[in-house]
Design brief:
By secondary structure, the protein is mostly helical. Helix content is 68%, strand content 2%. It is built from eight helices and two strands; from the N terminus they run ααααααββαα.
Length: 228
Amino acid sequence: MEDELVTSYAPDAAPPREVADDGLVSDAAARRAVGHAQRAAEATNLDIHRNTWRYSKLVDDQRGIVLTHRARMLTTDAAIVALAGRCPDRYDELADTVDESVLVAVGRQIVLYHLDRGWTDHLAELAEIREGIHLRALGHGPNPFIMSLDPLTEFHKEAVKLFTQLFEQVEAAAAETFETATITAEGIGLDAADLKRPSATWTYLVQDNPFGTDFDRALRRLVRGNRR
């Protein structure tokens, strides 16, 4: 009866009337209180999981699109074709001295770097939005007399708007690198071109929950507060 689960979810439960010498509680009211606390805790946890899923589902769909695009960049010459379309003069210049297979590999390295970086930045930005999106419930739409803003709907709007810009930003950044990086017959130096990808990039790319648990989010808020 003194367990945290009972005190949190059945705080009004009366102390048991019958307690054996060994601590065994046989009081029916106490057993009902424990059962109620367990059901309330399970319902709360289910609601938390359901709410997290609602926020994560759209991000999972976006992840699927990115992974499909990434696989195409990784297994075809689509990367160098896109770069040649954006930077025809640069491509023609390199084609005179660099083998086509090398250019395909270089284009792939450049595009994959910026795609991975763009996606991880996208996830980080969504996590930041998720932290404060609940405050949208305090606001109103164009007509303040109809209804308050729904945080989930507002999050989806922000996530879709950011995602529609992702591939264009990736292509623009890749084109800039293609124009300015030193590319030779041996390829491109990843370190010199500042294209070295962290080993954790792929883990971050495919993780199940970009928002973390409630504890993770609380910890991030605490860390940010200490930094300020």
